[in-house]
Amino acid sequence: MSKSRKQEPAASLAESLQRLEEIVSSLESAELDLDDALRLFEEGIGLLRGARDQVAGAEVKVQQVLENAEGDLQLRDLDI
After folding, report:
1. How many domains does the chain have?
2. In a domain, 7, yes or no
3. Whether the predicted model's global pTM rises above the 0.85 cut
């Protein structure tokens, strides 16, 4: 698979999730041919990976903010 397409800027998490919902709806409609379904599936996997990376990055930032003055890390569960 070649990456001849121009790389687009990273979408926000909300935009990625919205697009994933659109892709799932399209795939569930069963009105796509195999090539279109595979293209959407690949796009969805890419969006999912990007969203996962964004969440992981946010977790690191939250952990850094929770670090106290002595440098001890206070890990807390995030309520998302």
Report:
1. 1
2. no
3. no
Q: How far apart are CA 78 and CA 80, in angstroms?
A: 6
Quote the pLDDT of residue 63: 72
Give the pLDDT score at 60: 77
Query: 5-51 pLDDT, tens per residue?
Result: 444 556 788 899 999 999 999 999 878 899 999 999 999 999 999 98
Residue 22 lies in a domain: yes
Helix, strand, coil % (nearest 5) of the chain?
60, 0, 40
Q: How far is CA 51 from the centre of its chain?
A: 1
CA distances, 33 to each of 5, 40, 42, 49, 78 (Å): 22, 11, 14, 25, 41
Which residues span the domain enclosing 21?
A: 13-66
User: Is residue 3, in this structure, part of any structural domain at all?
Assistant: no
Q: Does residue 30 sit within a domain?
A: yes
